[in-house]
Specification:
Blueprint lengths: L2 H12 L19 E8 L2 E8 L5 E5 L13 H6 L3 E5 L19 H15 L4 E5 L1 H9 L8 E5 L5 H12 L3 H15 L7 H11 L5 E6 L7 H10 L4 E5 L11 H12 L8 H9 L1
Parallel strand pairs: 3-4, 3-5, 5-6, 6-7, 7-8
Antiparallel strand pairs: 1-2, 2-4
Helix pairs in contact: 1-6, 3-4, 7-8, 9-10
Length: 285
């Protein structure tokens, strides 16, 4: 009856973050001593921690509704293998202040922008481990700044039309409301299809060489499709894919085999990596 109103309501829902209780964000991993830091962003503050005293920098990038220490299980083995690790909360996530679109809201372009801001403050990225929408944010950021040397995506979000399909099924709105929302989205950020992972990667490949990518995804992930990571890896020259079973969208971040694969992949080209050769042999086998 009123597609423009429906489009505005859908816009509010689309960019609204899920509420995560503070106790749910507490790390269940024994972490090495970390140094807190703050970075100004959009009139607010991004908060995070850096772990390790020396070595190449690896950034942990959480997804939509996540927080930096959601990837805490990667920190102790990375530091033990000689890396420095940076984990931070994106705008309106965790301990960080709201960003450009206000409290409890954010967007993919904002996640990409804040990644670049944190890297500019902390130092060039040797490696990145990114989860879910964090992977999409890193891919988007690669269009605008020098890329890391190695990238690991875990349960990457790649196709936002699928998410919109889920919204449509859940809320029961029709094609006119969908079209009104997509028009609003395009006015702010450009066409939604321009953020689709394969589209972005195809454009990047035409411009320059991309860093090696390891894409890890659980076959039973109900929030992001494993096929999305497979398609992304096919478009990304030299990328490899590891598929897991029974870990879903979040438990995959705590699995020892997944963490070992990521660490081995990051250590392969670094002479200080203690397990590089054995990990690479395991992956190739």
């Amino acid at each position: 009856m009123a597609p423009s109103i429906g489009g505005r309501l859908l816009d509010r829902l689309w960019f609204r973050l899920p509420s995560v209780p503070e106790n749910a964000r507490r790390s269940r991993v024994d972490l090495p001593a970390g140094t807190p830091f703050e970075v100004p962003f959009a009139g607010g503050t991004i908060r995070g921690h850096q772990y390790g005293d020396q070595g190449p920098l690896v950034y942990l990038v959480h997804g939509w509704g996540g927080w930096g220490l959601q990837l805490a299980a990667f920190i102790p083995p990375l530091v033990a293998d000689g890396f420095r690790v940076v984990a931070y909360d994106a705008p309106s996530h965790g301990e960080s202040a709201p960003g450009l679109v206000g409290k409890g809201r954010s967007s993919l372009p904002e996640l990409a922008d804040v990644f670049q801001v944190v890297v500019a403050d902390r130092g060039p990225a040797y490696g990145v481990i990114a989860h879910s929408l964090g992977a999409a944010a890193v891919t988007h950021a690669l269009q605008h700044f020098a890329e890391p040397e190695r990238v690991v995506y875990v349960a990457a979000a790649t196709d936002f039309a699928d998410w919109l399909d889920g919204f449509q099924a859940a809320f029961g709105f029709g094609p006119r409301v969908r079209a009104a929302f997509l028009q609003r989205f395009a006015r702010k950020f450009g066409p939604m299809e321009s953020y689709e992972g394969v589209h972005v990667v195809t454009e990047l490949v035409s411009e320059r060489e991309l860093p090696p990518l390891l894409a890890i995804h659980d076959r039973g992930d109900r929030e992001t499709e494993a096929d999305g990571s497979i398609r992304l890896a096919k478009a990304w020259p030299g990328a490899s894919v590891e598929l897991t079973e029974g870990l879903g969208h979040r438990r995959v971040l705590r699995d020892s085999a997944v963490i070992g694969s990521a660490l081995g992949f990051l250590s392969t080209d670094w002479e200080g990596g203690h397990i590089a050769s054995a990990a690479q042999e395991t992956m190739e086998g």
